[in-house]
């Protein structure tokens, strides 16, 4: 694919926007790439855009071509501190849909206060990688339905791939689980890294919220990370999720940055 969409001038040079793949565009000046645009479809079906260009006029030209080619709504994510990039997307007609805070939390139980946390009566913690696929899938789908009925699943930070038949593909090596009797009731999705782990999702069945299960899960996961030599973990929390914000702030987590999800409808 090499279709030309738009030609304009930036300063004294002609800039040509060319589609080079199904969801990929290049801005060319004298056959040199001076800007790139990409569109990616996430597991929930939404299309997110990214544009890489140092020149505002080139950004605008790429955005104009991409918006003309793609079906709306379209989304993008920007660092809220990047005022110039945010302004570029706003100029293209994007508006803020939601804000997501990035929290950094210590794994040291003496700092978080999780050293004294007791598991709720009747609840056991299944370590990362030891959960069984069928009950984990049942829990995940139940939590997803509960979230979708309230704040909406697309406000959650975790993305889980699905097969064409819609069944979620869960990586068992990334989940710790809380179990009660013969069912799973809560989960934490964690991705260990060399220096800082990512907490991708903390969730408990709606009928068992506020029973201390989430804190017990975090006590287990963060404690395990600490013993393995990882000192901090980070998590993304939608600002509308007051319970999750209170949970992390109660552990002494600090807000390190914020991202904006923008939408063009």
Automatic annotation (TrEMBL):
Transmembrane segments: none annotated. It comes from the Bacteria. Gene3D superfamilies: 3.40.630.30. Residues 123-265 form the N-acetyltransferase domain. InterPro entries: Acyl_CoA_acyltransferase (IPR016181), GNAT_dom (IPR000182). One of its GO terms (molecular function) is acyltransferase activity, transferring groups other than amino-acyl groups. It holds the Pfam family Acetyltransf_1. This is Ribosomal-protein-alanine N-acetyltransferase. The lineage of its organism: Bacteria, Bacillati, Actinomycetota, Actinomycetes, Micromonosporales.
């Amino acid at each position: 694919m090499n279709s030309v969409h738009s030609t304009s001038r930036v300063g004294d040079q002609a800039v040509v926007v060319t589609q080079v793949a199904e969801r990929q565009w290049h801005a060319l000046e004298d056959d040199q790439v001076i800007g790139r645009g990409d569109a990616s479809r996430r597991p929930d079906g939404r299309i997110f855009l990214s544009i890489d260009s140092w020149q505002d006029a080139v950004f605008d030209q790429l955005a104009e071509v991409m918006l003309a080619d793609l079906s709306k709504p379209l989304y993008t994510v920007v660092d809220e501190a990047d005022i110039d990039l945010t302004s570029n997307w706003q100029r293209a007609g994007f508006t803020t849909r939601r804000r997501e805070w990035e929290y950094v939390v210590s794994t040291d139980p003496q700092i978080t206060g999780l050293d004294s946390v007791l598991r709720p009566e009747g609840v056991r913690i299944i370590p990362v990688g030891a959960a069984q696929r069928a009950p984990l899938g049942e829990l995940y789908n139940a939590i997803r339905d509960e979230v979708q009925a309230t704040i909406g699943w697309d406000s959650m930070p975790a993305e889980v791939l699905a097969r064409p038949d819609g069944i979620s593909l869960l990586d068992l090596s990334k989940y710790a689980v809380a179990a009660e009797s013969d069912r799973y009731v809560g989960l934490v999705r964690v991705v260990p890294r060399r220096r800082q782990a990512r907490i991708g999702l903390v969730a408990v069945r709606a009928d068992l919220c506020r029973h201390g299960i989430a804190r017990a899960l975090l006590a287990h996961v963060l404690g395990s990370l600490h013993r393995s030599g990882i000192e901090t973990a980070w998590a993304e929390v939608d600002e509308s999720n007051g319970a999750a914000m209170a949970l992390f702030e109660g552990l002494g987590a600090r807000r390190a940055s914020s991202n904006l999800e923008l939408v063009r409808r």
